[in-house]
Design a protein that fits this description.
Blueprint: E1 4-8, E2 11-15, E3 27-30, E4 33-36, E5 38-43, E6 49-55, E7 61-68, E8 79-88, E9 91-100, E10 106-115, E11 119-120, H1 121-127, E12 145-150, E13 155-162, E14 174-182, E15 187-189, E16 192-199, E17 204-213, H2 225-246, H3 255-271, E18 272-274, E19 284-286, E20 296-297, H4 298-307, H5 314-325, E21 345-346, H6 350-354, H7 366-381, H8 384-389, H9 391-402, E22 448-449, H10 450-471, H11 474-495, E23 496-497, E24 504-505, E25 508-509, E26 515-516, H12 524-529, H13 537-545
Antiparallel strand pairs: 1-2, 2-3, 3-4, 4-11, 5-10, 6-7, 7-8, 8-9, 9-17, 10-16, 12-13, 13-14, 14-17, 15-16, 18-19, 20-21, 22-25, 23-24, 25-26
Helix pairs in contact: 2-3, 4-5, 4-7, 5-7, 7-9, 7-10, 9-10, 10-11
Length: about 550
């Protein structure tokens, strides 16, 4: 069975198929921090035998089914378990049901074990998942966790608080905490609680475990944890239902197509999270991916909105506003930020609060893609008010493309890392070894990657339409169109690689103007944006569908 991932936006629980967390990157996460490292349930000293499990109606609810083995060997089990795990913006609620299917009273001991470490997601990825791509948390001190048992309300509390590393005032501190409680009285221990239960024949015993997020106020009283979590769960369900009602209905005789569409709509619902600024509950935008990338990424968020435009335009509107709100206004080499640039990654956890490298702007394509999204949203909605609202952001984004992005003065959008802890390759294929010549030798920055030039070309044309139609700026629109035509001609001359197979566009240009002549799937983006010369499009399509690129699942090389 696959691992358990239950989530509501950037609150998510990662567990093994039994529903337990305690190894690797498992745990309950909130705002990019693991607030619960260990969560394990046992009956009579062992985990129930796993029968199965799966999503229970929506992405924020998961059920795990098991059975309790008999102590006398060879006797069929008479007791079953169901763990129903629900995640919401308020925390985690688990309902454990133990059913006695036999004719005699069954006496059992249920034990929950739990602990917290408040590790930032970056720390977890480096320390426990072995991911080498940690960029911002190399010197992050471990969180000092406070553990409390409060017998009068019958709750456990875990909390942590840290001071900014750069010595800024206390209001820059980071803090987080959780409160644990159970609906039935148990025998408390250090990081554990026991329930001694006599389950009557043909009956079910239940207990609810509540893990409530404390937020900034670590001393706030949460006297009704069940009610608090249920209200948050109803809100999560309401968001999903409104999304389902808003998307188009697909009618088809093809059952596989209908199921694919249903699953796609459900997956997009799971990816949605609150924007940076939201005036009402429906202000949601897609994150980059679950579970480790439930955060705002400029490139991923924009591309998802572009591809899902037919399902609704509200995510695009929210993304445009949120990314515009976070648009860089100054030059900051430590974050690869320049005026007008759209961010690469936003995190809100301990590393973000205590360090100085986030939000991070090391993405060369997020800015032209932002303009592409604005133009596509305008085409779909005709929302003049939104385009006027975004005018300063859109002009600033184009200003970056026409200015700081052109590192070599050749008229291309190029990248070179400035941050000491930044990303080396700042385009779509961002692995360190993705920019290679056909002979396998690496290409050195600053690099002008082919698909980014396509984005910049389409961005100019799209912004020209907005400027002419909405802003009434004919002069600006005409110049953008002239620049787009010139870019298209220059691109074809500089990037085309002649080969015995018929040629293809280069992956990139290096600082000396040499074509990085690898044949990769990046050229497919050139068809989408229209920068490819008309005489080249058939050859690009042939290359994309040839055996050396086409895997059957798409062009992934």
């Amino acid at each position: 069975m696959r691992d358990v991932v239950v989530l509501d936006g950037n609150r998510f629980y990662v567990a093994d198929p039994h529903g337990d967390a305690g190894s690797g990157g498992e745990g309950l996460y909130a705002d990019d921090v693991r607030v619960l490292r260990r969560w394990r349930m046992e009956v009579n000293g062992e985990r129930p035998a796993l029968l199965g499990g799966g999503e229970d109606g929506a992405h924020f609810c998961w059920s795990v089914y098991g059975q309790i083995p008999r102590r006398d060997a060879g006797t069929a089990p008479r007791m079953s378990t169901r763990r129903r795990l629900r995640v919401s913006q308020a925390g985690l609620r688990e309902t454990l049901s133990v059913t006695n299917h036999g004719r005699e009273v069954e006496r059992i001991v249920v034990r929950y074990e739990f602990d917290a470490d408040f590790a930032d997601l970056f720390e977890v990825k480096r320390r426990e998942l072995g991911k080498p791509d940690l960029l911002f948390a190399r010197s992050m001190p471990p969180a000092s966790t406070t553990r409390q048992w409060l017998p009068r309300p019958g709750v456990y509390r875990f909390s942590a608080q840290e001071r900014r590393m750069d010595g800024r005032p206390p209001d820059g501190d980071w803090r987080a905490g959780v409160q644990l409680s159970f609906s039935e009285p148990g025998v408390p221990g250090e990081g554990e609680v026991y329930f001694e239960v006599a389950v009557q024949p043909r009956t079910t015993w239940r207990v609810q475990a509540c893990v409530v997020l404390l937020g900034d106020d670590l001393h706030a009283e949460h006297s009704d944890p069940v009610g608090e979590l249920r209200r948050a769960e109803r809100q999560a369900l309401g968001r999903v239902e409104r999304w389902r009602r808003a998307v188009p209905v697909l009618e088809t005789p093809s059952a596989p197509l209908a199921e694919t569409y249903r699953r796609s709509v459900a997956d997009l619902a799971a990816l949605r999270m609150h924007g940076i600024r939201h005036d009402h509950e429906e202000s949601l935008l897609p994150a980059a991916g679950l579970p480790w990338f439930m955060a705002v990424f400029g490139r991923d968020t924009v591309i998802t909105c572009l591809l899902a435009m037919a399902l609704g335009q509200d995510p695009a509107r929210t993304a445009l506003r949120a990314l515009g709100h976070l648009q860089a206004t100054g030059d900051d080499a430590a974050r690869d930020a320049e005026p007008g640039k759209i961010l690469h990654e936003l995190r809100v956890g301990k590393v973000a609060a205590l360090g100085s490298s986030l939000p991070y702007y090391g993405s060369v394509d997020a800015t032209p893609l932002y303009l592409l999204l604005a133009a596509e949203t305008w085409r779909w909605t005709g929302d003049e008010q939104l385009m006027r609202e975004l005018e300063p952001n859109l002009r600033a984004a184009m200003g970056w493309i026409e200015g700081p992005a052109d590192l070599t003065g050749r008229g291309y959008v190029e990248f070179r890392r400035r941050s000491a802890h930044g990303i080396d390759v700042q385009s779509w294929k961002d692995s360190r070894n993705s920019m290679l010549f056909a002979d396998g030798s690496p290409a050195s920055p600053p690099l002008a990657v082919c698909e980014v030039q396509g984005y910049a070309y389409a961005a100019r044309l799209g912004l020209a339409d907005i400027a002419r139609t909405v802003w009434g700026d004919q002069t600006y629109a005409d110049r953008l169109e002239r620049d787009a035509r010139a870019l298209r001609e220059r691109f074809d001359h500089d990037f085309w690689v002649e080969t015995p197979a018929g040629g293809h566009y280069a992956l990139a240009l290096d600082p000396d103007g040499r074509r990085v002549d690898s044949l990769t799937s990046n050229i497919g983006h050139l068809l989408m944006t229209g920068i490819a010369a008309d005489s080249r499009t058939d050859r690009i399509a042939e290359a994309l569908l040839a055996p050396d690129l086409f895997s059957g699942w798409g062009c992934g090389r």
